Amino acid sequence: MKNLAQNIADVPRSVAFRPATILVPWLACLAVALGVHHYLPMIVDEYWVNVFRRMGVFVMAAVSLNVVNGFAGQFSMGHAGFMAIGAYVAAGFSYYGSLYFRGEANVDDFMIQGTLLMLVGIVAGAFAAAGAGYLVGLPSLRLRGDYLAIVTLGFGEIIRVTLELTGKQVYDAKAFQDAPLSTLATLPFNGSTGFERVLPYANLFWVWLFVGVVCVVAYRIKNSSAGRAFLSIREDEIAARSMGIDLTKYKVRAFVLAAFLGGVAGAIYAHTGVNPSPTDAGFQRSFDIIIFVVLGGLGSLSGTAIAATLLTGLSEVLRGPESIVNSPAGVWSLAGIALALAVGSALLKAVGNRGWRVLAVASVAPVLLVCFAYLAQWLATAWGVKLSDYRMILYALLLILVMLLRPNGLLGVREVWELFGPEKPARRPGAVGPGKEPAP
Amino acid sequence: MATFFDTLIATIALGSLYALVALGYTLVYGVLKFINFAHSDIFVLGAWTSFTSAVAVTTLLDTQGVPPWWVGALVLMLAVLVCATTGYLIERLAYRPLRKAPRLNVLITAIGVSLLLQNVGQLPGYPVVRDNVPPAAATADASAPAAQGQTLATLPFGPTPRSMPQLLPNAVLNDSAVASGTITAGSGRGQVRLDQPIEILPDRQYALVVTRTVDGEPRTTTFRLVGIEGGRIEAGTDIGTQPRRDPIDFENATYRLVLSPVVALRLIDVLIVVSSIALMIVLQYVVFHTRLGSAMRALSFNTETAALMGINVNRVISITFVMGTALAAAAAFLYTQKYTSLSQPASAVWVLLGLKAFVAAVVGGIGNVRGAVLGGFLIAGLELFGSTYSEVLITAAGGSSGIGTALRDIYVFGLLILVLLVRPAGILGTVTREKV
Amino acid sequence: MSEFLLDARNISIAFGGLKACQNLTLQIPAGGLYGLIGPNGAGKTTAFNLLTGVYTPQSGSIHLDGRPITGLPPHQIAKAGLSRTFQNIRLFGELSVLDNIMLGCHLRGRHALVRTLLRTPAFVAQEAAMRTRAMDLLGMFNLAHLADEQARSLPYGDQRRLEICRALATEPKVLLLDEPAAGMNPSEKKSLAQSIRFIRDCFKLAVLLIEHDMGLVMDICEKITVLDHGCPIAFDVPAKIQCDPRVCEAYLGEPAADQPAPAGGGPAA
Questions:
Q1: How many domains would you assign to chain C?
Q2: Which residues have C-beta within 8 Å of that of residue B191, sequence separation ≥ 6?
Q3: In Å, how far is B264's CA from the nearest CA of chain A?
Q4: Is the complex ipTM higher than 0.90?
């Protein structure tokens, strides 16, 4: 039997070198981002454009959390803390950067330079978050399961309190330009009020470009030897060690990667027209993200992305009178999506693809969303009951139900597209006989 | 500035509260080996049930002339009942089906239960209004009656913070009388004159305890002195007091001038300390000297073997849960008597309190009854001493005030991380090795 | 440099007062197929845990191929060339059969993050090679048709063989098998015996086997070490072990003065 090195040497160059595999996903990200950026505003109004920006942030957050919670099975409950670090560092870059270079933070014609500052900030924020992830990852070597969960939760709280203790924000450009470093040393992030006046440089394009990048990165990690190592740790630490997997290295790596990607999500979040504030680091935000991950599937990137999208959409739909019910275009496009999915499902069934069930279920989702929207409106006008008050109750019930019925989340480690493919013949229980002797 | 002893008093009071909550965590963990994340929400349920039932009892029943602690006892029983039932249901419906599932799944379920309880408590419900409308009779239209009368409570609990009535004796124990005599003039409108000169220390709080005779019975009222700087105040000078809503003539009433402590030790604190120690002893007895306790210990070693030995696993776990939740309810009732302003059910205040109690249980060694109490005092001590002294240091070094106080949470979680790294099973816990 | 491939001398460990393993010496030459037997609780699995680094020996030394591995963490010992299976099967249940084997190949590969993210040719080649190698191994054990199944969905016997297969994927010099025949029926055991010999010859490694099935042990092992209460009480060829009075005493709890030696499949089967 050859060893792995010989096996590698045997792989022909034509197999190993495929530029398409290397590049296509990145180009696809770019195309999707451009598409969303140009076509979405044609369909929906500005309010929904903002919803889609927030949605993108949640998708990134959920996908990044899945790296540590889903792949490596190290249950982190402080993800919002990493996001907040990313958010504050990036916002610091773009706010104080424009204060320093432009003498004013509130300028519209500064868009391109501002975007550059944001991009620098995103990188810096991601690295800062990754540093924090390294610190949190260290205890994971000695702690398992619920203990680790509590430590990460505590760490998130430490970050929140620290952010609350930061100094006053500097609005005066002159003062800042005179002594930029000594001002920054006081961490001028405005304490519990939250960082103000960060310009919303992250438009739909940037948000969805980074959603794509984060997803591709996470997916490539999952589908690699490193990703398998993460999964093996989650499945059985002792067996993983005896297979030569360095638990220390991989656990810390999982935390660092998740924190890095979470930092990107936070950095984008800070530039979507919100004031990043210490509550963004709190455990309630972490729990929101955990809900997406658990419902979508611990280890399933597409699952968590879909869960984050749908649940964000749902919370908008539940708002009642001001929801999509008043926007015929929104209702019609959802109905169109449902119809397209149903037709697709019928087609797949006709060609004998087992994915038809997935599409059939998926086609129900937009219909349900519309129904919920009408229900919410009716309840609000007829009874004065706000369905949005019940949103978290619904999530909590879903969480419990999923844990009782599908312990690994709706999709488990599988991706959505793995549910498609030719129908498999049902395996008979006796089909796999007792072990035959290996062929010599 | 608080002195060492003041901080010590505060530590004991807060620590025993943590210990009470931590006991519940540790009890459930000891048997089921999982963190009942919803424990702090049961605690919130207990606190808010105490509030609602106190309102209901005082509105529905004629409580004139009944000593308040009778009402308190009734309220406590109601809270325990509600919490224990909820705890039983949670265990039965959410946790029991997951008995053989990985611990992480149970943890996620517990988070789900916690979120569920929090948000059900947050729902805007039916208001209980002042003009004695029983809650069931309140009409479906929630806004109309609320607009007429003063809303006392909502059912379930609603998103507004409330103020809990004082049902247990609350006297300050560590104050000291500095003078006494008779009041020469005063009507409770905000000024009194005393018959003697008094010495006032700067930066300290003083209370004036006034006793007068009404219908042959002595009545005592306490006022805070306001607008006073340090120094000597001559007899007959007007001294500012907190005004009274319905002024009564105080002339010739007797008074005691009392120096309020920086940190007040109240009767309720003593009650909390005593009950936490007593409950620890009771639990220790139950766990180590009763049949139920040996069943619990057997379960904690190995559920399957315990079942083979004829232990009714589900029953023992249910009982443990009911015990844990009842403890939470009792702790919550005492909490409402110590801190009478109740935050809304989903407030971060509760979660933080629950977390710190949990940290106490983990630091002491989760699953260990004595460890929970030890951890409670340790956490409270670290939190209060740490924040007091770092505040002193930081303000002395020229830092802005408030930073040291805000650091208290950081100390607690820092200690948690430290202890878990050095002794993963906590101070009094024992390490269990995974069998390969 | 000793003549033994795996050379563990006088290793001991105690858990509190329990001396789980005392002065155990295990020396296996290249190509050896040795057995480790003993009554339940004799410390066999503890010995495996000591060898593979799950526990650190409190005294004694372990060398693998002349290299000291005493006290190294398990993953480094695995890398040095010591691989094992587990008494209670520890597969990565949620993962596919193929992924389980590819994880076995993990420690011989390189996994830098940059190449993973950029999908460099070196990365693609390594993945392809791991896949080929894993499929080859699965083919040898007649598991290739199950490559895409979840490991936990396999029947028990297949799971056992998959675990051996995964251990082999790490390219070990010494393979430790912990009760590979547990729960197998006689015909399965027979084919297992053949497999073990085949593995030893084909992969050119040494095998150390814990087994309760005396028939299997006596059949395939060249030499056997017997443990009782953590202490090695005998080390010899199977024929001699069968009539060793100390061994019979350890198993039956009484001096076996005039009893016939337990035949294969005897005491603990």
A1: 2
A2: B238, B239, B240, B241
A3: 27
A4: no
